[in-house]
Structure formats: structure tokens, C-alpha cells
Amino acid sequence: MSQKAQILNEMNERSREVFRRVVEGYLETGEPVGSRSLTRTMSEKVSAATIRNAMADLEYLGLLGSPHVSAGRMPTETGLRMFVDGLLEVRDLDESDRDSIHATVGEGESDVGSMLDRVGSALSGATHGASLVLTPKHEAPIRHIEFVSLAHDRALVVLVFADGHVENRVFQPPAGQTPSSMREAANFLNALAEGRTLSELSDAIAREISEHRQQLDVLARQMVESGLAMWENEGQSYERLIVRGRSNLLDDSTEATELERIRELFDDLERKRDIADFLELTEQGEGVRIFIGSENKLFSLSGSSLVVSPYMNADRKIIGAVGVIGPTRLNYGRIVPIVDYTAQLVGKLISDQGKR
Asked: pTM of the prediction?
């Protein structure tokens, strides 16, 4: 049993109820909860002084805190985590939320990118938070790769997959590239690419360059190595992390310090520097995961929470993720089933598309 679970089990019924009602009150209003307001909601009649004593004990345990001496109490990040793990009651998905997600996402969409963009809009609309959608890489084996020079500082790579899918990506090649070095780079890649997916090819490229470094022209090697970042969708227009609903985070925020923290979050999202970390969070298992405050290593905004779930293809392989980010006082009981349902719906739509 974890230390947090042990603390929760050792609380008496009154302390447990005080803790639960303080957290629920804070999640509903965003404000500290005072002892007098609790006297009207407790299941047994107790005095404000008795509740204050219970609050003081909970504060000593690090579960509650107070913004200033005369204010009520609010949960700490530790308290929120304990509540989420031990006391949170996850509701069934509301029919209205289900209908809203279906109406926005739709079915029969052939373009996965457009469908996932609408998923982001549906999630942010239903939860009033900012939504994050990590789109899948195309994992079919590669049939052919070709480089095309567009200008001295721009080139196009054409990726043709075995299932007929074609992707064209513009990127900045290393200086001094020639048609000959581009052909050599393409030939080198095509010799490795047959039967491999993009992610498999990245590993093979690094290994092959290391073992046969001298056999590849310097310019061609630079061209291949510059492509490694491109395979992971870095530094070019192809968007793997779709962010929608940023304005929702501003609705209830008027304090300068809060607005500055939200600006930092926007900066992090714009840089999209932690896409791999975002997917890694979801690859540790199925189901919804909740990251509260400083537990969330993706963003520098410590006052935020992330509710995220992976989605899978027909082979039950995790290929992407959907999530909602917002203040730590998210309505977890409502948002968890929304994120869970959306992830399952996306997996079903992508799997159905693969059967066509």
C-alpha cells in the first residue's frame, strides 16, 4: 500500500469527509473553502471549530493549504493527487457530451488529419479546456524515397508508402547540396527503406551510417543525417501535436500572475518540444492518466493538470493520444470519461478506415 493510500485509510470518517468536501468545493469554484460553509454541508452536525481542527490536521499532513491566514483551505497538489487516486467518483459519460463529440467528429472521413483536427475542437468545446491531439505516424512500409531541389535553401522529400499513401515534406537541406548528392542520398535510403516503416528506418539509418561512414559522400551523408529530424516531424510544417481551445484557459483568469503562467504554457505548446515525451506518457499502458501540477513534466506551467489517454489501431498498437490540459481545478469526474470515450472513438474510426 502506498503512503498516500495509507494516510487516506487512517483518516477517520469526519476528516475524510472534510477533505473530500474541501476538494470538491475548490474544484467547483476555484476558491478556498471555509469552515462555516462546511457546517452547512457535512453529513453530521458539527461546529465550525471542530471542522477547523480537522482542516488544521489535514494541513499538517500536507493535503490542504491556505493562500493567506484568514482564508479557507484548498487542496495542495499532493491533496489533489490523493483525492484523484482514492476518492474521485468518475461519472458516466453524459449523453449530451457523447452527442456533441459525435456531431463534431463525424464518421466516414477519409482524411485522418482533418478528422483529428475536429477531435481537438470537440474535446476543447466539451471540456472548456485546451485539447491536445497527437496524430499517428504513418506506419506502412516505405516503397520509395526521392529528394527534389526547390531552391538553394529548400528541398522536397517525397515518401511513397506500400499502401499507396504519399507524403510530400518541405525542409531545409544542408548547404552545398548538388543533384548528385541528393541522388546518392536517395539511393542510400531506398536501399535501406524496403519493407521498413519510418520509425524502423530511422534506427537503420543511424546504424548504417555508423558502420559504413566512409562509403557515403560527405554531402550525401549530411543530407541523410538532416533527414533524421524530419522523420520525427521536427522543424517543418507537418503537425503531429494539434492544440485547440487555448482561449478557454483565459476565461476565468484575470490575475497578472495567472495570465503570465498561461502565457508560458502557450509558449511551450507553440514549441511543441516534448511531443515524444507526450506519447511516452501514454505508452506505459491503456486507459486515462491524470498528471497534476508538477507531476506534468511536459510543460513548465506547474499549476496545470493534464488528462490524457492513448488511442490504438486495429492491431491494438498505441499510435497516438488525446488529452485535455487546464487548471488543477479541472472537473476530473466529468473530463475523465470524455477523454476516455474520445480516445476509444478515434481508435475505432482509424481502425475502420484501415479496413476500407
From this structure: 0.72
Instruction: Select from 3.40.50.2000, 3.20.20.140, 2.40.33.20, 1.10.10.10 the CATH code of 3-86.
Output: 1.10.10.10
Mean pLDDT by 10 residues, the chain (356 residues): 64 88 90 88 86 91 82 88 89 89 70 82 88 79 86 84 77 82 85 80 76 67 65 48 78 61 65 57 73 68 79 83 86 93 90 68
How would you class 313 by CB atoms within 10 Å of its CB: exposed for 0-12, middle for 13-18, buried for 19 or more? middle
CA distance 30 to 36: 17
At the topology level, CATH places domain 142-231 in Enolase-like; domain 1 (3.30.390)
Placement of cell 483536427 in the chain: 117
| Residue 224: all three cell numbers together | 541523410
Phi, psi of 160 (to 5 degrees): -110, 125
* φ, ψ of residue 74 in degrees (nearest 5): -140, 155
Is residue 324 within 8 Å of 286, Cβ to Cβ? no
